[in-house]
Amino acid sequence: MATRLARDFYQHNAQTVAKSLLGQRLVRLIAGQRLAGLIVETEAYLGAKDKAAHTFNGRRTKRNQSMWGDGGHAYVYFTYGMHFCFNVVAGTHGDPVAVLIRALEPVEGLDEMRRRRTSKTKSSAKHPLSDLALCSGPAKLCQALAIDRNLDGADLVAGEELFIEKARAKMLPRAKIVATPRVGVSYAQEWADKPLRYFIKGCAFVSRG
DNA sequence: AGAGTGATCATG
DNA sequence: ATGATCACTCTC
User: Fold this and answer.
1) Cα separation of A87 and A108, whole Å?
2) Longest Cα–Cα distance in chain A
3) CA gyration radius, chain A
4) Which residue is nearest to nucleotide C10 (CA to C1')?
5) C1' of C10 to CA of A110 (Å)
6) Which of A142, A9, A146, A6 has the alpha carbon at shortest distance from A84?
7) Per the confidence metrics, is the pTM higher than 0.90?
């Protein structure tokens, strides 16, 4: 039986949590089935000071309230009229920081993921989706793992439907982690260029970014 | 490079 | 109430 990451794993700054999550296993339990992937790409969002964060300037709204909760909970939001994105809340209660999960290497339940991804895509389903296309983006992995707003606020430490298992004891060595600017935050001025996106060096499952 | 899609948020 | 925006994806 695999060990889950405990509460204190999450109660640190977003950059630390973002890097520590690389290589860990995200698990979704649905209809008695396990869907799982190794986290290979993340982004840190630093709270009130971070112009790219939903909680910039201390904004606290119905949508982002999960970000204000204790570390180890889910923050799931809906965007572009179509997509969900999944964040892991970091820090402690009242510190609105989070880590966006941007890509997974799928490892369990690939056929079910493929089904969930293709049934919702239009036409051209003549070829099955490649493993690389399953979870290589924040909205793609939500579709593959059936993560939607029902899971917003879910407790990753104690919950039954969504959690993270310890797949490696320590953070990846620094040489295996690449840091770049975050994707899709060009509006965030000086915060747009900070290297707060992290991925596993050479990994084929990262998003194109 | 452009379209799709609608909730969300800051205005007023 | 209204309108601009959006931590994206797919197809051209």
Assistant:
1) 21
2) 48
3) 16
4) A121
5) 21
6) A142
7) yes
